[in-house]
Specification:
The structure is a single chain. The protein is of the alpha/beta class. It has two domains: 187 residues, Periplasmic binding protein-like II (D-Maltodextrin-Binding Protein, domain 2), CATH 3.40.190.10; 111 residues, Periplasmic binding protein-like II (D-Maltodextrin-Binding Protein, domain 2, 3-Layer(aba) Sandwich). 43% of the residues lie in helices and 17% in strands. It is built from 14 helices and ten strands. The termini are far apart.
Length: 339
């Protein structure tokens, strides 16, 4: 057998082997990696419920969830190539795009006034009676990265400003957006206050390491009207992934929409039960805000014009308007959810 014949046989064998590998990959589930703050963070429960409900398996996918300290770090990790999608606050996206990191929101999770509270250490109750008294104090909050501010910090700065306190008049302390991070910072005295969302706030109060100073659920909260109805938690991905792997985006959005539909068809107690939280008190802490806020989650992940306009106003109010020439619609890839 001459050399040319041998090379032809080797090439044919390699081709057949490649077809076999491709077939095996096509036969298996499509792995989709998503980064979110958590676990058990209220805005991202629709994502956590996907594998619990078996939605990914039903659609021929395997959802792999990774928890990070904040939405900013979650998306930066995805942009670095370590995942496909991330849960994050919408208001952060313009910073990514402006810094040469093209990303887009593919679906919305929640909107409106977020269920955030400022908690202080109980021993400070006599000296810190209102938000204005936080001037000169330390505040624990997820800080994102050197280049991109987190949604929570944006919200807290806006709230402080409504009470006459500038962002430079408090000391910001990096605190992970989970129970261990918030609890540890308060209990150890590393911070005077934390800014967090339900169910964290309720859990910290129940455990008596935090005392509620103020809540955005209060209709009289200064500046609250300017924050209502804006896009909050969304699912985002790099533009490159959306352009090159549209099927993966279609699968991810399809799973999310099924999860949102299931949430709206079930009671809070049943939703929390699906998460299989072993601590009964923590489960109740999570069920309580779900009962109080039945319209917290999007019905179908779609972007509404009213929410986009409210978001544009929110960005202006927060001191972070869209960069010149940037259209808010350019931050959205809505072909998988429709209008």
């Amino acid at each position: 057998m001459d050399r040319r014949t041998i090379l032809k046989l080797m090439a044919a064998s390699a081709t057949l082997a490649g077809f076999g590998t491709q077939a095996a990959e096509e036969a298996g589930p499509t792995v989709i990696r998503v980064n979110i703050p958590g676990p058990n963070m209220l805005p991202y429960l629709p994502i956590e419920l996907i594998p619990r409900l078996g939605i990914d398996q039903a659609l021929g996918a395997q959802l792999a969830i990774r928890y990070l300290p904040s939405g900013v770090l979650a998306l930066e990790d995805v942009v670095a190539g370590n995942g496909h999608f991330a849960g994050i606050g919408f208001s952060v996206l313009p910073n990514f795009v402006a810094k040469g990191k093209p990303v887009a929101a593919v679906a919305t999770l929640s909107s409106g006034v977020p269920p955030y509270s400022i908690l202080i250490r109980p021993e400070l109750a006599k000296s810190v009676r209102g938000v204005r008294d936080l001037k000169g104090r330390s505040i624990g909050i997820p800080l994102g990265s050197q280049t991109t501010k987190t949604y929570l910090q944006t919200m807290m700065e806006l709230w402080l400003r409504a009470h006459g306190v500038g962002r430079e008049e408090v000391r910001w302390v990096q605190t992970n957006q989970n129970l261990d991070g918030m609890y540890g910072s308060l209990a150890s005295g590393v911070v005077d206050a934390v800014f967090c969302e339900e169910p964290l706030a309720g859990t910290l109060v129940r455990k008596k390491v935090g005392r509620r100073l103020a809540s955005l659920n209060d209709p009289k909260a200064p500046g609250r009207a300017a924050w209502a109805n804006h896009l909050r938690a969304i699912l985002a991905a790099p533009r490159e992934l959306l352009d090159n792997h549209p099927r993966r985006a279609e699968l991810m959005v399809g799973m999310l929409r099924r999860s949102l539909k299931w949430i709206h068809a079930n009671k809070p107690a049943d939703i929390v039960a699906k998460l299989a939280i072993q601590d009964a008190d923590l489960a109740r802490d999570l069920a309580d805000p779900l009962m109080r806020m039945p319209h917290l989650y999007s019905l179908d992940g779609r972007f509404k014009d009213s929410e986009l306009e409210a978001t544009r106003a929110f960005l202006v109010a927060s001191g972070s308007p869209l960069p010149a020439g940037m259209d808010i619609h350019s931050l959205i890839a809505e072909q998988w959810v429709g209008r």
